[in-house]
What we know:
545 residues, Rossmann fold, 22% strand
Amino acid sequence: MLLPNARSSYDEILRSFEWRIPTRFNIGHVVCDAWAEKEPARICLQHFSPDGQHLAMTYGALREKSSALANGLRSLGIRRGDRVALLLPQGFDTVVVHVAIYKLGAIALPLALLFGEDALEYRLRASEAVAIVTNEFGLPRLQAIRAKLPALRHLVVAGGAVARDGALAFDDLLDQHPSRFEVAATNPDDPALMIFTSGTTGPPKAALHGHRVLAGHIPGFQLGHEFAPQEGDRIWTPADWAWAGGLLNVLLPALTLGIPVVSSPAQKFDPDMAFRIIAEMDVRNAFIPPTALRLMKSVAAPRSRYDLHLRTITSAGEALGRETYEWVRNVLGVTVNELYGQTECNFVLGSCAALGVTKAGAIGRSVPGHDVAVLDERGLEVADGVEGEIAVRAPDPVMFLGYWDDPAATEAKVRNGWLLTGDIGRRDAEGFVEFVGRDDDVITSAGYRIGPAEIEDCLSGHPAVRLAAVIGKPDPLRTEIVKAYVVLREGHERSERLAAELRDWVKHRLSMHEYPREVDFVDDLPLTTSGKVIRRMLRLRAAAE
């Protein structure tokens, strides 16, 4: 499952790679106990504190705390296969809970701390979670809906909270139970993790993954971070660990490889704070979603203001675009290794600048061990340069076991041996895939099929634009017209003159048929917790105009 060293070429790695996943495989053991048995004093976690009082945890401490919690959860009657939810920010307690759930053989259900009552009720009810661990911030929302969730038997509050109002104290569960635990003898296909999709195009669905999902992420992680682990590697992401990007692109693979993971307090993304975290914690590796990278462009001369030692940056979640790719390379001195995947089947395309596998505007090539193709509506591979649906051949270690309690949706997602992503792309002669847009997002205008990603990237290159999102607005003449929603940088005023300038900007840089015929200036864009633009909401807004 681990890659050879960097002396091999990318094509050699592709040809020689084969999966070797043990018949007994448990995420909790791999990310924690396997290291604690041989190097208990090794640092696995570090936490950034704005006051400078940074914290650290060893693999040995993580083993003891997670084992105590696993015993505590078992004492509550939680058994193998039960769903246990987490409503927590980045931090040590979150990792302890994850590891304890996996050791027990239960199923972890990470939830974004910013979810409101309706979103939480929907996910907890659909998953029939029997317990949830949260903090003081999440507690009131859960207490407000608890009576509507008959399956939810236990509510545990972390962060030093005391037991009250029917909620148990996290610290009590640890203190009252032994710190030795026999890890469940799980196999790679046993359920371990349930992650709800982002809901960008419809109601969120619960993707169920086996323990093997972690093994499946290791090759892509190692390539994206250019043959990690290297001496001094230390990784951080602003992405919520409740998202597949934060959990599976960073936290679990890094712990597996012995790379310390830096956590930071939950907050609205602040570009200056991001640079401060990277500098103060000596972050060498980072996973930064495209939206966050675009916001970091607003910080002037970051390498002069901050002592940065970045070795690698990976990015995913939406198309990065040429403008941001070039900015990172020119300003930060690092080439972004873009990658691609979905909640159902993640990290199947990737890049590795160290091997020359990188291209501005592309989301990568097939990662070793994953067979990715671009298919037409008949399920046949299209020619190079032709648009089609990105698909992944089954079986695959990162591929989900299915949608929870929804066999019809699972059957529709996997057809004729291929998992259909619903994303439109095109592959070039070198094997690089360019992301065009989700099938639902592709705009049909006057007979042309137009992907929003390229236009958004172009708009983001204008000095007045902070963020941009593009949709198709219904039009009786052209079927749809391109409509742009734009968030401006500070110091720029909304005006029809600027809107015309942006239309010309796209018209002259892309094509006459792709420019936005309508430009709306907005204060912000609707985003998922993973930073993706929810174009569905923008389409509803445009249709109501």
